[in-house]
Every structure is written in structure tokens, then in C-alpha cells.
Write a structure and sequence with these properties.
The complex is a heterodimer of chains A (about 675) and B (about 375). With about 675 residues, chain A is α+β, with helices and mostly antiparallel strands. Chain A folds into four domains: about 160 residues, no CATH class; about 200 residues, no CATH class; about 120 residues, no CATH class; about 100 residues. The longest helix of chain A has about 35 residues. Chain B is mostly helical and about 375 residues long. Chain B is about 75% helix and about 0% strand. Chain B is built from 19 helices and no strands. Chain B is elongated and about 120 Å long. The chains are: A alpha+beta (about 675), B mainly alpha (about 375).
């Protein structure tokens, strides 16, 4: 079984070479047969990669220690779920997951691309093939997950204890679906550059792929943030850590791409810009992979680092980023620009959005790479942390967030800011009210809190206003309004939900940063502590034995107003003997949208324990907002305009007829 | 064999994926213009919907419609231009097709033969543990025993069997746990206590800690003749720097040990090393840890003597090359005395004094040291 997987991987590599070369020649020679090879090869390549991945996963599930990667990252006593997720909890396996998703997307284009022009489809599959070939080669040459050990050890070295968590089952697959999803947008862009023209169907295809990738990337980042929040035991949700930035940059660029693709799809404008953004977004995904995997950074994501891998990924990075940008420089002038619009219009608003988002991406890029470059050149280590990003990223986001509610209310081609402002009066009033309430009753000292809460409410109310205005609220009868509301296109709901989610996330961030409280103290069994109106009693420390760890579990009781316990929180320190590692399992109690967070520190000699307590008001909204954004993307994907039919031969005959409505 | 069949089937399937489309009929497909037209038509109907909902003003909607219509007209021009330039390039196409069909089996089998291990079967742990014990390696047997004990943790006999195996495999912390379980479930015995002590010492890198000493003392209480416990307690003395007491304890052991005891060799060796100040300072690495003792005790008396002689000879050799090492000289002299080779001991002492000069501080120290061993330097 293991060797079957290994062979399937090699075979998939061979097919990716065929997928690169044959359709490319086919498109150049306009040869139907050669172009037709791309589809079946992409689908077979995916099937073989899936077989290979299944073989590796089964080796992990069955603790086959004759496979080196299983021996290094698994243990026979781990629960089955962690044995399986351990498949991608290491460098080799995660790269295999990466190409599995890459070939999966390629197969989707092959399977559902029948409404694409044949040459575009062939070129897209060829570019997808060359990305696959590069990464298959990378895996086979430097990170083969199927390297065998003979004789086989009898016991493995255990998975990194921090990764022994349900988060590993969700975060990497979601994130990879996002990262790799942008590869399709990249392939479409490069294919358009190879052809030297952008078909009208190009934008129709790129936008849903951007939506899919963006949806998963949003989920992946939100999940990663929540995982770090509860697993690392410091109660923080975002650290401006280079690894986080590596995922955040494609997200920002992808958000810009999402918006420019709308203009391109609806109005055939911003073609060249959209194409460039698609290339940049995937390039940033690749850059993220390089930063995380090359050993340039040390983090839980780096796994075992090996300089040859770094050099190899750097070559891949240079090939794809350099190659695609060179192609862009050569060919962009041949592409025709389209649709006209006035500066004040929906298009204009989306261009503004793009300007802010790309500048923000550049800021994060500088903040991430500058310390690395400085270290490489001078050896000096500097830390560019939250203060840098607060001063640069923050001021860039502020005007963008203020402008968000205006965008969807402006008409295409020529909009009316005054009319839009009038419609947003209610939203503005509620934002102002929220600021006043915050400033007067909750925290008068913090301008940041009042402004932040006001801005969040402005976003939320603005999204609702958009839906209300489009259903005709205030101008038509409630029954008509309801009918119109139900009849709104799904993409309108998508926009509103995504902006609503953004507001929720902002609300969560501002509330947690401004009103959160923290306490560090030593406690003995039976003692109580009070934090922001919640009383917690430390019941005691109880040793327990897990399948592959031992732990000291600290139990706490939440005391209600009446003095009797209303809930329990337990936090633990776990020791994993195989890796000789200690982890902290934080105890979290969700009360409404807020959370009480308990983390155990060191144990004193007299039976006392250091306890860290946080009160995190509205903290769940940070990730809840992310989920709402994902729902918005899903809603947008269901919109009818994404389903463009294949032209039939019959209609081709009729195509000479001038379409109705032409003046 | 089965693997090769599967590999062949997979290769065949992959080749077919390349071959079939190439062999298919070249049906005339639609040009990209048709696809574009479809999109523009959709854009027009969408424009009408947007205009109906007031998302675009009537004047702008008319303008947009005109834009789309212009694109449709342009499309028609591009389309006819594109069709005339279409060519088949059939020779190149045939070459590419042939290369592609051949590449699949050649690349895959060629590459796999370089990096694959086709002869290694999959080895899921459960299968390895279920096979006939006679075919299993020691590691596999231990894993089986562990699996059995995980399921039946109160099997005292199992722990009793496993504990010394752990000790031999140098898995000291597992050995400590196993001995503790054996004592808890099977009751106290001198052998178990002494084993526990040895495991604790092993886990500490050979240092006989207070915990280990407690275990050995408990063993001696249960069986005063337990050689392992006596040996390690003497070792503890040596590690504390109480070399004379340690040597005395070891010599006492030599007097009471039965002539065929495996511990005699270990004691001889320990006595030979006991002049080594590194033991006295507690350096663990140089002390005879459990493995050394095991190795020495499993030898025949002749082999053991040969081993000790080799060690002393190598020290002698080292001092010839690098003579300014007073500690080394003292160790050498002591070794010869312990081995009963008084002549060589005396010769070594003279050489040592010669190196540093007869009147030097070192020479005085050597003389005093030799006197404490009952040896006099000869002029």
C-alpha cells in the first residue's frame, strides 16, 4: 500500500509534465486533439495524487513506522484522529496535501470548464500543470513522505504536542484551499497573457475562483487565529508574527482581487489591473510558503528545516513570480482596456478599495520582509511588531472602513454621493450613538474604544442599510418590500454579509482590546478570585493520565450571584514524555459572546499555582465575523450570474442577429 | 508481486488518459468568440435587471448597452481574423503526442526505480504485533509486552519480565516505572529493589543518587548478600570522593562473593578505576555504568582480564606520548598495583618522577601516593 502510494505520486508527476506540455502545444498549434489531452490528464493526475495521499494517511492511521515520516511524527498511543491529522502535521505530508488540493482544483477546471473557450482551457490547465510539476518535483527531490526505514522502528517519535489538537484537522486544509485556490486565478491570468487577449468569459471564471479561494482563506486564517488563541495559552488572537502575515498578505491582495474582479465581470473594465492582482495574490501565497518552509523563520509551522528545501522553493518562487511578471511586462500592452466610468461611481469606489488594500498589503510586506533583509545583510535582529503595524496598517484601514458602506450604495458608471449619504443617515446616527454610549458610560478615557466601536457599528448598520435600501424600505409597502427582499440577487446578500462580518470582527477586536481585563496571581485550592464581575473558585489540581501524556488539571468553579457554582472551567498543563514537551491547555468558558479564559502557570512548592485570568468581552465576534464573511462568499457563489451556459451550435447560427436593446 | 501488478495497472490507466483524447475524433469546436457572445448576452440581460432595480440610471444603462454592443461587433471582426490564421502543424503535433504517450511510463518507472523501495512491504503496527513471536525482533517483543501491559496494567509478572529488558535496552525511565509497578503489584524483593536502583542510576547518567541509594539499601535489608546493591553503594561512595571507603567496600565484596559470581569482574574493574579522580569528582560518563558492568560480567574471566589489560596498556601508551599528566600517572600506578603487577607499577612511578624531575612537587606527591599504596620508588 505504501509503495503503491509512492508509485502513484511519481506517476502523477509524470502526468503533470504531460499536462504542461501537450495542451500548451495544442493551443499554439490550434490542434483540438492535443488540447483535449489536458482535461483527462488533470483528472487522472488528481485521482493518482488522492491515491497517494490516501496511502500516506493509511500509513499514519496504522502506525506504519517503516515510513520515515510516520516514525518522525506519530506515536502508536495517539488517538486515531491525531494519527490521521498527523498526516499533514509535518513538512512532507503537508506538501502532499498542498499538491492534492492543487490537482483537485485543476481537475475541477477540467471537469466544469466546458463553457470555456478551448484554447483558454488548455492554457489554464497547462499553467496549472507546470505549478503541479514544480511542486511534485520539490516533494520527490527534497521532501518525499514515502522514504522508508529498514528495519522499521517499533515506536514513533510522536507528533508535536502543540499540533495534537482538533485545530490541525481544520486550519491547514482550509488555509491550503485558500492559498492554492488562488493558483487558479494565477493560471487564468498567465493563460490570458500567453494568448495575448482576455476573453469575456475570463472574468466570469476568475471571480468565482477568487470567491472560493477567499472564502477558504478567510476561514483558514480565522481558525488559525482561534487555535493560537486557545492553544498557546497567552490569550492573544493576532501577533503580527511573520507566519501570520504570510497568510494575511494573500488575504488582503485576494480581497482587492475579489473587488476588482466584480468591476471586470460587470463592466469589462480594470482588466489589466485584475490580471496583475491575480498574479500578485498567488505570488504572495508562494512567498508565504517560502517564508514558512525555508527555515527563514522559526515557528511551529517550520517543522524540520533543511537548507536545500529553502533553495528549491526560492527557485520555484523566482520561476513563477519572475516568469509571470516578465510575461505581464511583455504582453500587457496587447490587452485591450474596457468600460468607461466616472470617478464617483461603484467602479470608482471599488478602485479606491483596491488602492487602499494594495497599499496595506505592501505595508505588511515591508513589515514582514524588512527585519529579515536586515538580519541577512547586517546580522542585526530587529523586531517589527504591533507598534509598526498599528502606526501604518491601522491608519490605512481607517478610511477604507469608513468608506465601505458607501460602495454598495453607489450606482454603476455614475453615482451620487449625496444620495448615498442620505440613505446612510440612519447608520451614521447609530454609529454616533454607539460612540457616545461608549464614551460616556463605558470608558470615557479611551478615544480608541469610542471610535472603534462607532466604526464597527457603522459597518454593521451600513450593511443592513444596503439590504434595506435595495428592498425599497421607506418607499414601498412592507409586503412589497418583503417580496423585493426575497428577490434580491444572492450576490447582494453576499456583499452585505461580508461587510456585516467585517463589522463584527472589528467590534470583537476593539471590545477585547479596550475592555478586556487580566489578572495574574498565585492561588491555592479553595481560594476565590474576582475578575470583571465574575467570581472564580479554584477547586484544586488533579493529576490525570491521557493516552500519550500525563497532565495536572486545575479545576475552577464559576460562582453565580447566589454563591453557588454555575459552571466549571478546567485548565491543564500536559506533559508529553516522548517529546519531553509541556503544553498548556487553556480553560475557556463562553458567556454570551464573551469568554473567560484561564491558563495555568508554574506550580509552587506549597501547592499554590500561578493562574492567569482574562476576561475577553465579545471576543468570539472576531472569529464569528470571519464565519459570517465566509457565509457571504458562499452566498455570492450561489448567484445566478455565475452560471453562464455553454454556447450551443444552434445559437451560433442566430448570433448574427443584433441583441435586443441595442440603440 | 502484487505491487508490480498494481503499478502496471496504474501506468496503463495514466497512459490511457493521454492516449484516448489523442485518438479521439477532432471535432470542430466553437471559437472563443461564441463563448464571449454568450457572456455579453448575459451581461445585457443583467443590465436590464439592474436598471429595473435602479442600480444604474437609465442614461448610463443605455450607454453601457452601447458599450456591450460595440464589443459584440468587435468580436465578429476578431473571430473571422482568428479563423484564417488557424493551422494544424500536424508534424509537430504528432511528435508531441508520441513523446507524451511515451513519457508517462518512462518517467514514472525510471524515477520510481531510482527512489522507490518496491521490496519493502507495508508494516502496520497491529500486524507486526500479531505475528508469531518466534519471528519477531526484540523491539517487537517489547512492543507486544507493552501493548499487553497497557491493556492489563495490573499484571505484576509482566512488569517483572519487562523491567530488566528495559534496563538492557537502556530505556532507563521506562525501567524505573516498570520496577515500581513490579514492586507495587508483586511485592518487595531484593532483586526488584536493586534493579530499581540501577534503573534510577542509569536514568541519571550513571550517578548513584540518593533515591538510588535508598533503593539499594532497601535491597540489602531484604538480602544482605545482594551483590548489585553492595556494588552500587560502593560506587556511590566513590562518586562522593570517598575513594578509600569505596575501595574497602569493593575489596570486602571480593572476599564474600562466590568464585563464579559475575560481579567479580565488575568489582575488579571498579577497583582498577577507583584511583581515577574523575570518578571521585562524580563524572558520570567515565564511571562503569550498567552497560559496562553488563559487558564485563558477561565475559569469561580470561576475556575480562584481557580487556582490563588493554585499557591499562592504552593509558600507558597515552602517557608515553603526553607525559605531563600527573593525574594520569597516578591512575596508571594504581592500576598496576590493583592488577598485582608491582614491578610495572614501580617502573611507572619512576618514569613519572623522571618526567617532572626528582625534586619537583609532583614527584613528592607521586612518592607519597605510592607509599599509600604500599609501593616504594626505586632510584
Amino acid at each position: 500500500m505504501v509503495e503503491t502510494g509512492h508509485f502513484a505520486l511519481v506517476l502523477a508527476f509524470a502526468l503533470s509534465l504531460v499536462q504542461t506540455i501537450v495542451p500548451l502545444f495544442g493551443a499554439r498549434l490550434n490542434n483540438q486533439r492535443l488540447m483535449a489531452v489536458g482535461g483527462p490528464v488533470a483528472i487522472t493526475g488528481f485521482a493518482l495524487t488522492a491515491l497517494s495521499f490516501a496511502a500516506l494517511a493509511s500509513a499514519y492511521a496504522n502506525s506504519d513506522f517503516s515510513v520515515a515520516s510516520v516514525w518522525e511524527n506519530s506515536h502508536s498511543l495517539q488517538p486515531l484522529i491525531y494519527k490521521i491529522t498527523g498526516t499533514w502535521g509535518n513538512h512532507e505530508g503537508s506538501m502532499l496535501l498542498w499538491v492534492l488540493i492543487l490537482t483537485f482544483f485543476g481537475a475541477l477546471v477540467a471537469a466544469f470548464g466546458s463553457n470555456l473557450p478551448a484554447t483558454l482551457r488548455a492554457n489554464v490547465l497547462a499553467v496549472q500543470g507546470v505549478i503541479g510539476a514544480a511542486f511534485f518535483l520539490f516533494i520527490l527531490a527534497t521532501s518525499n513522505p514515502f522514504v522508508r526505514l529498514n528495519p522499521a522502528p517499533i515506536e514513533g517519535r510522536d507528533l508535536n504536542p502543540i499540533l495534537q489538537d482538533l485545530g490541525l484537522a481544520i486550519h491547514p486544509p482550509l488555509l491550503y484551499l485558500g492559498y492554492v485556490g488562488f493558483s487558479i486565478c494565477f493560471s487564468f491570468s498567465v493563460a490570458a497573457l500567453i494568448e495575448g487577449r482576455i476573453d469575456a468569459s475570463w472574468a466570469r471564471w476568475v471571480r468565482p475562483w477568487t470567491l472560493v479561494a477567499w472564502m477558504f482563506l478567510t476561514g483558514g486564517i480565522a481558525m488559525g487565529s482561534y487555535w493560537a488563541y486557545y492553544e498557546l495559552g497567552w490569550g492573544g488572537f493576532w501577533f503580527w508574527d511573520p507566519v501570520e502575515n504570510a497568510s494575511f498578505m494573500p488575504w488582503l491582495a485576494g480581497t482587492a482581487l475579489l473587488h476588482s474582479a466584480i468591476v471586470m465581470e460587470k463592466r469589462s473594465a480594470l482588466k489589466i489591473w485584475t490580471l496583475l492582482l491575480a498574479i500578485l495574490t498567488f505570488s504572495l501565497s508562494l512567498l508565504g510558503t517560502f517564508l514558512v518552509r525555508s527555515g527563514v523563520l522559526t515557528s511551529v509551522h517550520a517543522f524540520a528545516t533543511d537548507p536545500t528545501r529553502g533553495v528549491f522553493i526560492l527557485c520555484i518562487l523566482t520561476l513563477f513570480i519572475g516568469g509571470s511578471l516578465a510575461l505581464f511586462a511583455l504582453r500587457a500592452s496587447r490587452l485591450t482596456a474596457g468600460g468607461l466610468f466616472h470617478p464617483i461611481s461603484r467602479e470608482g469606489a471599488l478602485v479606491l478599495n483596491n488602492l487602499f488594500l494594495t497599499t496595506a498589503t505592501a505595508t505588511v510586506l515591508v513589515g514582514t520582509l524588512y527585519p529579515l533583509a536586515l538580519e541577512a545583510l547586517t546580522g542585526g535582529k530587529i523586531s517589527v511588531g504591533a507598534p509598526f503595524f498599528d502606526l501604518t496598517f491601522g491608519p490605512l484601514m481607517l478610511p477604507l472602513l469608513v468608506l465601505v458602506p458607501f460602495g454598495p450604495l453607489l450606482a454603476w458608471k455614475r453615482g451620487d454621493v449625496f444620495a448615498a449619504s442620505q440613505r446612510l443617515m440612519a447608520a451614521f446616527a447609530s454609529a454616533l450613538a454607539a460612540m457616545l454610549v461608549t464614551g460616556l458610560f463605558i470608558d470615557g478615557a479611551s478615544v480608541f474604544a469610542a471610535l472603534g466601536i462607532g466604526l464597527a457599528v457603522w459597518l454593521v448598520a451600513g450593511a443592513l442599510t444596503d439590504l434595506a435600501v435595495k428592498s425599497g424600505a421607506g418607499s414601498v409597502a412592507p409586503a412589497v418590500m418583503f417580496r423585493r427582499f426575497a428577490g434580491l440577487p444572492r450576490s447582494v446578500f453576499g456583499t452585505a454579509l461580508a461587510h456585516f462580518g467585517l463589522g463584527l470582527t472589528l467590534l470583537g477586536i476593539v471590545a477585547t482590546l479596550s475592555f478586556g481585563t487580566e489578572k495574574i496571581l498565585t492561588m491555592r485550592a479553595g481560594e476565590t478570585v474576582e475578575l470583571s464581575g465574575h467570581t472564580l473558585r479554584f477547586v484544586g489540581l488533579y493529576p490525570a493520565q491521557g493516552p500519550n501524556y500525563s497532565e495536572d488539571r486545575g479545576r475552577f468553579e464559576l460562582i453565580g450571584v447566589s454563591g453557588s457554582p454555575v459552571g466549571e472551567i478546567s485548565s491543564a498543563k500536559r506533559f508529553y514524555p516522548v517529546r519531553q514537551t509541556t503544553t498548556t491547555e487553556s480553560g475557556i468558558k463562553t458567556l454570551g459572546l464573551s469568554q473567560l479564559y484561564v491558563s495555568l502557570g508554574d506550580e509552587g512548592k506549597d501547592g499554590s499555582v500561578v493562574v492567569r485570568l482574562w476576561w475577553k468581552p465579545l471576543v468570539t465576534l472576531i472569529w464569528g465575523g470571519g464565519l459570517v464573511m465566509m457565509a457571504g462568499a458562499a452566498m455570492s457563489l450561489m448567484d445566478r450570474r455565475l452560471r453562464v451556459g455553454t454556447p450551443s451550435r444552434r445559437r451560433k447560427q442566430a448570433s448574427v442577429v443584433t441583441p435586443a436593446g441595442l440603440p | 508481486m502484487l505491487f508490480w501488478v498494481i503499478a502496471a495497472i496504474l501506468t496503463l490507466g495514466a497512459s490511457l488518459a493521454v492516449l484516448l483524447p489523442l485518438a479521439g475524433s477532432s471535432k470542430g469546436t466553437l471559437s472563443s468568440g461564441d463563448h464571449d457572445l454568450e457572456v455579453y448576452r448575459d451581461q445585457l440581460s443583467e443590465l436590464d435587471r439592474d436598471a429595473a432595480r435602479g442600480l444604474i440610471q437609465p442614461a448610463e444603462a443605455a450607454e453601457a448597452r452601447a458599450e456591450i454592443a460595440r464589443r459584440i461587433l468587435r468580436l465578429h471582426d476578431v473571430d473571422t481574423a482568428g479563423k484564417t490564421s488557424a493551422r494544424q502543424g500536424s508534424v509537430i503535433a504528432r511528435m508531441v503526442a508520441t513523446a507524451a504517450v511515451l513519457a508517462v511510463p518512462l518517467v514514472s518507472w525510471g524515477l520510481y526505480s531510482q527512489i522507490g523501495s518496491p521490496d519493502l512491504p507495508s508494516l502496520p503496527l497491529s500486524e507486526r504485533l500479531a505475528k508469531n513471536p518466534a519471528d519477531s525482533s526484540v523491539d517487537e517483543l517489547v512492543a507486544r509486552a507493552e501493548a499487553h501491559l497497557t491493556a492489563n496494567p495490573s499484571d505484576g509478572r509482566g512488569w517483572d519480565v519487562l523491567a530488566p529488558v528495559y534496563l538492557r535496552m537502556q530505556r532507563f525511565s521506562d525501567a524505573v516505572a516498570a520496577y515500581r509497578n513490579a514492586i507495587r503489584l508483586g511485592g518487595d524483593s531484593a532483586v526488584r529493589r536493586a534493579g530499581l536502583g540501577e534503573a534510577i542510576a542509569g536514568a541519571a547518567g550513571g550517578i548513584v543518587s540518593a533515591d538510588a541509594q535508598d533503593a539499594f539499601e532497601a535491597a540489602l535489608k531484604l538480602d544482605p548478600a545482594n551483590a548489585k546493591a553492595s556494588f552500587y553503594l560502593a560506587m556511590a561512595l566513590a562518586q562522593e570522593g570517598r575513594n578509600k571507603e569505596a575501595a574497602k567496600a569493593w575489596r570486602a565484596m571480593l572476599g564474600t562473593l562466590p568464585p563464579d559470581s559475575p560481579w567479580r569482574g565488575a568489582v575488579d574493574q571498579a577497583l582498577a578505576k577507583s584511583g581515577n579522580p574523575e570518578i571521585a569528582s562524580g563524572a558520570a560518563a567515565k564511571g562503569p555504568d550498567a552497560v559496562d558492568v553488563d559487558a564485563a560480567s558477561s565475559m569469561s574471566p580470561q576475556d575480562r582480564e584481557a580487556m582490563i589489560n588493554t585499557m591499562v596498556a592504552s593509558l600507558d601508551q597515552k602517557l608515553r606520548q603526553n607525559p605531563r599528566d600527573p593525574e594520569g600517572w597516578m591512575r596508571l600506578v594504581r592500576s598496576y598495583v590493583v592488577l598485582g603487577k608491582a614491578d610495572q607499577a614501580r617502573e611507572a612511578l619512576n618514569r613519572a618522577i623522571a618526567v617532572f624531575g626528582a625534586g619537583s612537587d609532583e614527584a613528592k606527591k607521586f612518592t607519597a601516593f605510592a607509599a599509600s599504596l604500599g609501593l616504594m620508588a626505586t632510584e
